[in-house]
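NAD-dependent epimerase/dehydratase structure dump, as promised
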Amino acid sequence: MKILVTGGAGFIGSHTVDALVENGHEVRVLDNLQKPVHQTGMPSWLNPEAEFMLGDVRSKDDWKKALQGREAVYHLAAYQDYLPDFSTFFHVNSVGTALMYETAVETGLDLAKIVVASSQFVAGEGQYLCDSCARKTSPVLRPESQLVEGKWEHACPICGEEMYWQWTPETHVSPPNAYAMAKHSQEIQALTFGQRYGIPSTAMRYSIVQGPRQSFYNAYSGACRIFSLHYYFDKAPTCYEDGEQCRDFVNIHDVVRANVMALDNPEMDYKVFNVGGGKAYTVSEFAAIVQREFEDRKNKYLADALIPGKYRFGDTRNACSDISALKALGWEPQNTPEQSVREYVDWLYEQDNVEDILDFANKTMKDLNVVRDVKA
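structure tokens r here:
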């Protein structure tokens, strides 16, 4: 099959390209190599058997060229950042998706499938249960007035007792910021335009994806990157809040298997699927996994992660996705966070431009005033 992969030079995109090429598909990549994700330009890992096209999903002309002769699309290109440039989130993510469907419909392109990348962040804080009230609720993001006091947990709006997170299904939607709203818009477009114009479409709502090729320079890209960079330089990383917030980590190879499965499975048409790891870990637990990996490699003790009472404004307290819908179709995660970390660190040690990256990452977070201190 002739397939277009947008964002195909990126983390999830490049691994998906590799799998599609290995399966015998003819793959074209559309990517704008935007900084800071592609800080050094064309990545070395881009599959040489894939056709590369430099272009932008905000350009209809680029869509026309990229879609020409294609039979399926993986729309994985996305913009994510901590910058408050709200319009860019919508221009790239929402409008880019609209232009894809618009171009396909206008040109009468007969597409067998469109797979659209979404995010766990669409669910926001997810669902919680109050044991005292036996009541489920969906809290909003915690206000800064709460965080600055070092009060991390969600309280029941009825009785005031602490609530406990639940595995969040695809039916739950509560986007807390511009990025999440734009990703939800992509889901709506995929299902609505897909059904309206007879283009089988699936939205994949990824949890926190881990593995090699995660950009060093993307401040948004998560725990494995920042913890690994600290331990690489024998420095203790920081866990925000109290380190007890729960996350759902999924290996890149499991994500790729889900992506490939969506290509020719009609049971996935016109639906949204959570793609997660199926097991919750606290951030402190994940930091310890990274720590052990580096201790084994360096054959020495490394300092535990610091918990100094800092927080990132806008973070969800817990984020764990219910993956039962995808498991019912025969998919399930096969890799552990330990394997994800090992693969990432193997890749990290192969890179030759690591020296300035940690300072770059820390400066970015400081300049954006994302990391803040609890009131003394």
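The chain has a mean pLDDT of 93.
lmk if u need the other ones
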